[in-house]
Amino acid sequence: PLNVIPSKDSEVSLLAKLGGLTFLTSYLVKYGELGIDLPYSQNGFAAAAMVLTPPAITASVYYNKGKQEGGEGFSLPNFGGDNSLSMSDVKKYGVAGTVAYVLTELAFWAVAFPVASTVYYNTAGHWPDVINESAD
């Protein structure tokens, strides 16, 4: 069941806080980028930090939540004696395992290839040509 906790602030107070934070954030985004050179120069460290920070924070939150609940934190499922997923693990589930594996691979490549191609286009200035050009 959902436990609803009544707010301590009135709706007008919450609306004022939301409006103020929205205004402050939009002001910082609009004029804050002029104060730093980050958006106008290449910086691999900043790019890696922007890409890796949200998943790292999310993983940390779930790991700590698992530890607090008496578990071992976050761990991948163990299908055999070791921590790897082999084709025999897929085969033991028969047709359902094979279909799940195929659908997982299709979903991965349906997302990964367009994303990788778009990133390549944005960095190299042309689409990857894997047939005629061996460097792409």
Brief synopsis:
The chain has 136 residues and is an all-alpha fold. The chain has 4 helices and no strands.
Question: How would you portray this structure in words?
Answer:
There is one protein chain. This protein is mainly α and 136 residues long. The protein has helices at 11-35, 44-68, 87-91, 94-124. The chain is flat and about 60 Å long.
Number of strands: 0
What are the low-pLDDT stretches, counting only 5+ consecutive residues below 50?
none
Percent helix among the residues?
55-70%
> Beta fraction of the residues?
under 5%
Question: Span between N and C termini?
Answer: 55 Å
Outline the secondary-structure elements.
Layout: H1 11-35, H2 44-68, H3 87-91, H4 94-124
Q: Which key terms come to mind for this protein?
A:
about 140 residues; about 0% strand; flat; mainly alpha; 4 helices
